[in-house]
Specification:
The protein has 176 residues and is of the alpha+beta class. The protein contains four helices and nine strands.
Length: 176
């Protein structure tokens, strides 16, 4: 089961992504709005692994980071048969540096897929999963008119997919 480290957004961006989830659901597209667990929140997955060892957990909890200003940009489609609609997070050096920092901490863990390595990572926020090819046009029309908007990465969380629980790790560095 998936173990992950994810980046959390400021309240305004969180609210905007949730609005887009609702718009997709209202259009008949299976969005993340239908997942009502408290842990279901907009996020940017930074690193995933099959297992995260206790020493890595401790290192993650000691991570210090500064808030990162990002732009949530256009729509991107992942997959071939089971499509995933995502909003791209426009890469910027502070975001890529935070990702490299987290990847470096996690890289000893088993089962890290190639697509989260620093030279292959596509930062994004998932809007809808299991979108059929017939629903794709509807999905894009539901949210494509929204413009890019700013967001701030304000937190890092650990997601334990096996136990279905989350917790915060790291701490925001104050000042420079």
């Amino acid at each position: 089961m998936v173990q992950s480290v994810e980046l959390l957004l400021d309240d305004a961006a969180d609210t905007e992504i949730r609005r887009q989830w609702r718009m997709l659901t209202e259009a008949g597209v299976p969005s993340l709005a239908t997942h009502t667990a408290e842990s279901n929140r907009p996020h940017i997955t930074a690193v995933v692994a099959r297992q995260i060892w206790p020493r890595i957990e401790k290192a993650l909890d000691q991570q210090a980071f500064s808030p990162v200003q990002v732009r949530l940009g256009g729509l991107v489609i992942f997959g071939a048969r089971r499509l995933i609609l995502v909003r791209l997070v426009v890469p910027c050096e502070p975001l890529l540096a935070l990702h490299r920092q987290l990847f470096h901490t996690m890289c000893p863990c088993p089962g890290i897929p190639a697509n989260v390595h620093p030279d292959a990572w596509t930062p994004h926020i998932t809007l809808a999963r299991r979108v059929s090819t017939e629903q794709l046009g509807t999905a894009i029309r539901a949210v494509a008119h929204d413009r890019d908007f700013p967001a701030t990465v304000l937190g890092i969380r650990r997601w334990d997919g096996e136990q279905r629980r989350e917790w915060r790790v790291g701490r925001i560095r104050r000042g420079r």
